[in-house]
Amino acid sequence: MSLNTILNVATSGMMAAQTGLRVVSDNIANINTAGYVRKTIAQSNLVSNGMGVGVNIDAIKRATDKFMAAASLNGASDAGRASAVATAMDNAQKLFGDPSAKTNFFATLDDVYAAFSMAADDPSSTLLRSSAITKVEDFLGESKRITSSLSSQIKDTDNRIGADVDRVNDLLKQIDALNVDITRAKMAGADGTGSENVQSGLINELSTYMNIQVSDRSNGGVMVRSAEGVTLAGNGPATVTYNQSGPANGYLTVVTANSGGQVMPLAVTNGEIQGLLELRNKELPNLSDQLGEFVSRAAEELNRASNAASSVPAPSSMTGKDTGLDANTAFANFTGKTTIAITNAAGAIVQRVDVDFGAGTMTVNGAAGPTFTNTNFLTQLNTALGGTATAAFTNGQLSLNTTSSTNGVAIVDDATTPSTKAGKGFSQFFGLNDIIRSDGYSPYETGMVASDPSGFTPGQTITLRLTDSEGSRIRDIQVAIPTGTGTMQETIDALNSRNSGIGLYGSFSLGSKGELTFTSNTATPVSLSVVEDTTQRGVGGPSLSQLFGVGMSERSTRGGLFKVDPAMDADPSKLPFAKLDLTVAAGVPALATGDGRGALALAKAGDVAAAFATAGDTAGSSKTVLNYGADFSGSIARKAAAATSRKEAADSVKTEVDAQRQSQEGVNLDEELVNLTTYQQAFNASARLIQATKDMFDVLTNIV
């Protein structure tokens, strides 16, 4: 081996040791730098003619562990999703109050029943009547507050998703831009680990928002893909968009760098964005829907009791709620019997009309009266009332008005065969004597049957959005009200069409109480929401989604639409605390001032079994309002606790994985000191070899 060769070997060794020292010093300097991955050098021996002629520095690399890095990214996504859900569910649970406290939301309904119970002991007490009204207002006010707060949380969640998506797009741009720097450094044989560390930090942050797949590019840098393999960065940054169409479910789309602007759905199954989508599209609306169902049934049972009773004296005027129906449809499908009585100032009956819906007959003061059908019911009722009162039906509302200010109207169903439609008596169906009024149509039980006219104008449309279990949009479907005879069955058939409706994904059906429900196919479960609804029943009537409660946006806001009847609120003496006694002799008062049977029925309304419909993720059931409230309160607490537990578990896993990743990729001072000593000794050895070569060269020179 020549002296020049020896000198080159020594020089390469010195340069390799010098590079190693520089790498070690950089590692030591960044021992406390967050996200820093220690560097190592890759070196190989130089060979010439089968002989070693030195050492070569192939590359300076980061000591990454691909498996631990992937596990860390997954852990960050899990933690991001769990944290978003847990925080929101904890906030939602706080809206209802501590279940064990007497001031929680559900306790306010207990206070309502207690107030009516006290009033039943002294029905003539103005103070107790006013107290009962106040308790009802407190309950409805709390419902309105919680519903409004949940709606605000949904809007805030929309804003957070939008902000997260904007940050994701910024991260994708930065990650893709760093690929250029890393590739350039690799091609030039320079140290690109600084850019790689920055890029790794950006990827870590991206993983908290959404689950991703990361792979190395052959020429340096990384490829970032979504869970389904859509390229997000690596060959140009993709652009993610959050699509939010008012009340309909929101979803994500993406345009990749080389797609020519083609919009594709983006499936995100983990990360903070997915957690927020779950909250926005499912958890919060479900909670609000169940609240609406609870308040609707509580109001319904109170109204059932109030419509079976009367104030003393009876009100001279009764105006019902907006049923959303025309007169012919509203008076159809009743069964059983009811009595409409006109009483004088003393409470004695002056005109009595017994209506038998099964036979289609009316009895007036014990004598045969007119017969009727649903198409002429109003006319025949006015005939039977004989001028003592008038009945009218306008804008979906039935009203009864006496012709004398000293007279009143009282309605009571037959004791053995009470009138019924959609599970409600005649007075309750029309809301003639409701204590609690609503600006909506909940609980959406119209009493319609398939052969009834739908009442919706042909050609008007409703646009439905179908989303999968992960919240990704499947498609939007616009369904038009069909032409033809105009029955409800034809409308349902149009909705269920496999060609122009939602028939491929599920079906609508009309229940026994006239409620319209959507059932998803079990093989591929979907969620349904309403993007736009231009349908209208009659002139100025409700849309299909309003009347039947189609779509979560309609159902999730109903809890804030209830209020105490304005007339009763202004004058508590109009509370229906008495019951009409049809067994008294003619001329004897049928309404007594001290009668508290109506108040007692109101006090016991929470103990009456009610048919609760499916609401949110809770299946329909038959139970008392109080029992449903207890179950609802427990489910809220369980959901919040479960979300917190998942968050703690996800955080624990993330912490453990990050610790293991840090042990593999982080800087260990002891190891670096060993490396420092090794490279120092290697440097010294190479220096001594150079010195020895110099000495040998000097000896040869002197000999010459």
Keywords for this entry:
704 residues, alpha+beta, three-stranded antiparallel β-sheet, 25 strands, five-stranded antiparallel β-sheet
Write down the overall mean pLDDT: 92
Total number of helical segments? 16
For the sheet with most strands, the description reads: 5 strands, antiparallel
Counting copies of identical and different chains, the oligomeric state is single chain
Strand content: 15-25%
Spatial arrangement of strands, main beta sheet:
13-12-11-10-16
| Gap between N and C termini | 20 Å
Low-confidence stretches: none
Q: How many beta-strand segments?
A: 25
Alpha carbon gyration radius = 38 Å
Structural class: alpha+beta
Sum up the overall morphology in one term.
elongated
Question: Into which percent range does the helicity of residues fall?
Answer: 40-55%
